[in-house]
Write a structure and sequence with these properties.
This protein is an all-alpha fold. The protein has one domain. It is globular. It starts with 6 loop residues before the first helix and ends with a helix.
């Protein structure tokens, strides 16, 4: 473990990835709940107010996903680590 790093952030991101690849609904729900718990732990440990608020928002979004609500636009930005592709009309 390195000093100055919040270990709960990596754990929360890993739980989100597990939720995205879960084979059944119940496993996905449990992974989203675990991600929310880890985001809350990350927020509790954070000293920067901006990051604390961001982690709190991600915890709420993960909990909403566990309840079956569709993700909002802000949460979907965090879910996809890959950049969005350009429309095909721009590629030609």
């Amino acid at each position: 473990m390195s000093f100055g790093r919040n270990p709960h952030v990596a754990k929360a991101e890993a739980s989100e990835q597990k939720a995205q690849i879960a084979r059944d609904e119940r496993a996905g729900q449990q992974a989203w709940l675990e991600a929310a718990r880890q985001w809350e732990r990350a927020a509790d440990r954070e000293t920067d107010d901006k990051r604390r608020a961001q982690y709190g928002e991600r915890a709420e979004a993960a909990r909403a996903r566990a309840d079956g609500q569709p993700p909002d636009a802000q949460a979907s930005e965090h879910d996809s680590p890959l950049p969005k592709s350009k429309p095909s009309s721009l590629l030609n």
